Amino acid sequence: MSRPARLDRGFSLVELMVAMVIGLVLTLTISTMVARQESVRRGVTSGNDLTSNSAYASYLLDRELRSAGAGFSQATASNYGCTLHASRNAAQLLPATAAFPAPFAAIPQDYRLAPVMVFAGAGAGGSDVIAVATGHSGLSETALPVSPGTAAPGQVKLSNTLGMRGGDLVLVAQDGLAQCMLQQVSAGFVGGTAEVLTFGGTLAADVIAGVALADFAIGNTNVSLLGNATGNQPRLQLLGIGANNTLFSYDLLQLTAGAQALAEGIVDMRVRYGVDSAPRDGTVDAWIAPTSAGYTAAALRDGSATSRDNLQSILSLRVGLVLRSDLVDKTDVTRPTLTLFDTLPAAQQHTFTVPAGTATQRYRTVEFTVPLRNVRYSR
């Protein structure tokens, strides 16, 4: 007995078309969800990378800046703004005989000692460069007076040399001279009641760029202990943005050779000074750009009493960073401009314009304030 014809019939064309449409809709929906999930995942990963980079860069800068001025801020009249002379293996190190390596080639070769100094627009893309000086003596921050007339080749005379040892790095400076020298205590020296402090080693020299140790024989000369050549090294650093959106540091004393890459993904760095305006009360009451009158690098470097006073008035730094991810999205994910220091008056704010063609990459701004604890107790 044959089966009814209706039982041998398959799907009709209409039924097949409906099934195909449903299948295509489901496929499209699933594909869209997968693509959206992947985009979200990539965005989260990119955001996490920016968070990690910003936290790490902030930590590095805070570490370098927080102790600025340690070791020499208790003798501002002789130390602040002095032109530092240093040598290594009898070769002049400072003032530099050639331009500093990138990204610091625009920084003046005659380095003036200060806890911090900002060179506005001297870095890559017009970013700021920070010069920071920190001693790590581990001893008293009080400068030691040199007995008048005793500065001579290879030595000075102090009231005592307690705590000094071979390899220590000291700053020799004199009120009103506007020049200072880095010297290294001779190997094997052990301080105590002995009054004569002798110099020798790779970082010691009697004459550097025409300035002689004997020039400090006149009164009001001080010795400030900065650290040691092999342990507790002083850090005289330049910090700025260079090629490939990288934060670099450069050791002016070349205890660490060459420019060192610190963190990636940073496209801009801007700084504002936290200033204790007159009358002085030890608190920050104004934020000043490093392009403002009296606070430009040129003004802070002129060696005048006003520049020293202004350097003492800088009690903190507010640092703003702009970071960018490597991930490129299909559509724009960043607005055309970003603002740093938006809680400050308009004149102190900085507008960062996102470069053409990079709005498809994620940007992030981060700001932090670093108190300069040693400057608060300077005199």
Automatic annotation (TrEMBL):
Keywords, A to Z, come to: Membrane, Transmembrane, Transmembrane helix
Tell me the InterPro entries matching this sequence.
Answer: N_methyl_site, PilW
Which residue spans traverse the membrane? 12-35
- Keyword set includes Zinc: no
Q: What is this protein called?
A: PilW family protein
UniProt source species: Pelomonas parva
